[in-house]
Amino acid sequence: MARKIQPCVLTIAGSDSGGNAGVQADLRAFHCYGLHGCTVFAALTAQNPRGVRSVLDVPAAFIADQLDAVFEMYNVRALKTGMLATPEAIEVVAERLRAVPRVKKVVDPVMVATSGAKLISDEAVAVLRERLLPLATLITPNLPEAAALLGHPVGPGAGMSAAARELAQRFGCAVLVKGGHAVVDGEGGIAEDVLFDGRRVRVFGKPVVPHPVSTHGTECSLAAALAAELARGASLARAVEGAKDFVFDAIKTSYRVGENCGVLGMPREREVVMN
Fold first, then answer.
1. What confidence tens digit (pLDDT) does each residue in 92-129 have?
2. Is 3 inside a domain boundary?
3. Does residue 2 form part of some domain?
4. Where residue 134 sits, what CATH number does that domain have?
5. Model's pTM, two decimal places?
6. DSSP string covering the chain, please?
7. What is the total count of domains within the chain?
8. Which of 131, 201, 217, 243 places its Cα 20 to 30 Å from the Cα of 82?
């Protein structure tokens, strides 16, 4: 009797030598959801929580080979994209993803560092807008990334809702605008994210964890958890709720792995609430 084929999740992102973010964080998230994770490395970084020392871009042809190898044999139900640093990398990823329309696609448009510095060129941003974002099931920009995509500032609260609607109209996909550490109630802080699924706006809030050991890799982990939720059949709203719970628990259970160096925790295996 043939055994049931289990779903897989794919990450297309950069490698973090410290293991806090990127592909390494994604694989931790997939493991917590009990899913097999496939990988496509789009960049190699030398980094730790203090910063990125150098980046080695992976040639577009090798990115294509990795994608072809994965899609040839693995039951990929959902995927996430992270750091895609060059126009050529974005172009080849978009080309391959266009050929798998049934796969749920979470696109984290990594464009702006926490410091505000640009991470990719204007040419790469243009290719991202034109080629990759229209293929997405869900895009997950933070406030600076939403502003960069729209060409105007995006503030918290009502500004996030308006931005989510505008981005959805422009790219034809669902949008989750991440509010980060924007304080909305003055009582210790609420991290709010706004989802627009094409029909309605929903706001998801979680308290900011006080004095965490580490928050490095939270945006990567959120996108990975979203892909895992979708791979297991959750609706968009349920996926966002579950992914935010996952990241909240990961921050709460973060732990030290060196002097002034921590890593997100690995919450126990997640149960996905279906529609």
1. 999 999 999 999 999 999 987 665 567 788 999 999 99
2. no
3. no
4. 3.40.1190.20
5. 0.94
6. -PPPPPPEEEEEEEEETTSSSHHHHHHHHHHHTT-EEEEEEEEEEEEETTEEEEEEEPPHHHHHHHHHHHHHH--EEEEEE----SHHHHHHHHHHHHT-TTSEEEE----B-TTS-B-S-HHHHHHIIIIIGGG-SEE--BHHHHHHHHTS---STHHHHHHHHHHHHHHSSEEEEE-TT--SSSSS-EEEEEEE-SS-EEEEEEEPPSS-S--TTHHHHHHHHHHHHHHTT--HHHHHHHHHHHHHHHHHT-EEEETTEEE---PSPP-----
7. 1
8. 201
